[in-house]
Amino acid sequence: MKISTHRSTVYEGHSHYAMNIAFNPKDANTLASTCLDHTVKMWSLGSPHLNFTMDAHDKGIDYVDFYPGPDRPYIITTGDDKTIKVWDYLSESCVQTMEGHINNPSFAVFHPNLPIIISASEDGTVKFWNSNTYRLANTLSYALEDANEVAVGYDEGIVVIKLGRDEPTYSMDSSGKLIYARNQLVLSGNIQSLSPDDPLPEGTRIPLSIKELGTTEIFSNALIRGPNGRFVTVVGDGQYIVYMALAWRNKCFGVGLSVAWGGDSNAYAVLENRVKLHVYKNFKERGGVGMKGCESWSIDAIFGGPVLGARGKGFVVFWDWETGEVVRRIDVEAKNIYWSGTGSFVVIASEDSFYVLRFNRDAYNAKVEQGVDITDEGVEEAFDIVAEIPDSVRTAKWVGDCFIYTTASNRINYFVGTESYTISPSDIPLYILGYVPAHNCVYLADKDMNIYAYSLSLSVVEYQTAVLWGDMDAAAEILPSIPKEQLNKVARFLEARNMKELALQISTDPDHRFDLALQLDDLDVATEITRCMPEAEAETKWKALGDRALAVWRFDLAKEAFDKAGDLSSLILLSLAVGNRDGLRKTNRAPEVALFAHTYAPSLVPKAVDAWHTELRGWNKSKIAASIGHPSEHADLFKEGWHDILCREVESR
User: Fold this and answer.
1) Residues near 460 by Cβ (< 8 Å), separated by ≥ 6?
2) Fewest Cβ atoms nearer than 10 Å: which of 232, 237, 351, 609?
3) Structure confidence at residue 145 (pLDDT)
4) What's the per-residue H, E or C state across 481-523?
């Protein structure tokens, strides 16, 4: 069989149909070809001479693909013997044979980013293999389930499936030192190096200088820092490696699905499999009794903190690091556990809500000292529920006793005391890196590790926490440290807590202060605020102030407010209510004056009608003026009972 390029170079050597060629992404002058003669041949561009041949399968070979990374000189082939093989083309040796398809594999490719091999077969299935361990990870039938995106073509059409996750793999400590993994490359940056004196608008992407820290031997699913920041654990491919954070040197490694650090960097736990848990002290496995009951529960993941946490299907369990006793077992369908830095609070996040619990170490210790028999359920008094919040947590960090989190609806929120508040919505999914107190900012990243910042004053959070816990003395001490631009936010928080008097004292926004003053019936303050406003802005406030003054019987203030608001209708109503004839005259509303005179002072009707006529003629509306009856000129219109009305008015005086 001959293979011809555009420049008419002919490659000869195969004895049957050539099925596929692939170019080496690491060397564009090298290509591989497959054939039904059971061989794979390697060629160089510009030269018709064969480099070498590998007898790769027992039957015809349909497909070949090069490994895209720089660390392995591998190709992958599929054959009509129903196998998939990985080859080292430098040593011309077979690295692995993968079996599982029940018919001929049509293709097999390395994923460009994830540690995955994807194969498809004439048996109608797509299989996913781990490219590090070569173990089968998943099989999808022709009616593909919801499973990086891959398009698979069939005779009936094309199906696109999504692999992996969007959330990046990263870790940032409290000082702003950031590390993250991109495939097997580990990169670092320092958020602290950003200048707080040159703030960008909220939600703007922030440029950050990134440098290469090193590589990791496994594809990382998680980066977990030890409590003091000296060590970083990389977890992935069913293995873990502990690195020294600064030098990025391998400290230890092993088999594990999940790793959790204790309260210091001397203790950590490794979940080897779902029923096997190891605890290490100073990087040596601790002897003696393990964690009570762990062999009888199927565990999905473990979590570090003052006590060791674990989640399984339908439950969460906490163990004492030292004794291995169950501190508390809670029946809840959890997906993550977040401990506060103080160890006083823990969040258990489920699919559509999260629970905030307070950890009472003293209550647990008291039961232990009393010699109470601790069952697999633990000590009920060890945890008290603080709040349940109906938010789906995507990522989260504790800052003191403030829980900052992103939601599935792309909102950045924080929880303090017993309530949750919104920092800002986001147009795209963001993942919390952490909080830098010197910048008063929460830093987040998108799936490509672009950095974003949103302001959050820690003093505001501390003030809110003190208020929510009822410690007003502590709140008063914190108040002077709150930035002036955050005072209105604090005032609105206090208003929501029905602490309006304090909110009025703190707020600097005239509109907000005016609203608070009206709600508190502090009309003198409301009047002072309104008098200081520009005339164009003050009109609606004078009207609102007049209405409120009228409601609390302050007629003089109501009259002033309605007068400045130009609200003649309200002025007429007020003048009528208090019997203020001068007020009625000053309204310059002759029709209403005439009608009121007809009802309450008939003897004044001629004078009122004369004023009405004069007003209309001044507006060139003589015809309308002529149509309005006058008692002396149209006596026939005032016959019935008019004389009696005038007499009664005289008698009433």
Assistant:
1) 482, 486, 489, 490
2) 351
3) 36
4) HCCHHHHHHHHHHHHHCCCHHHHHHHCCCHHHHHHHHHHCCCH
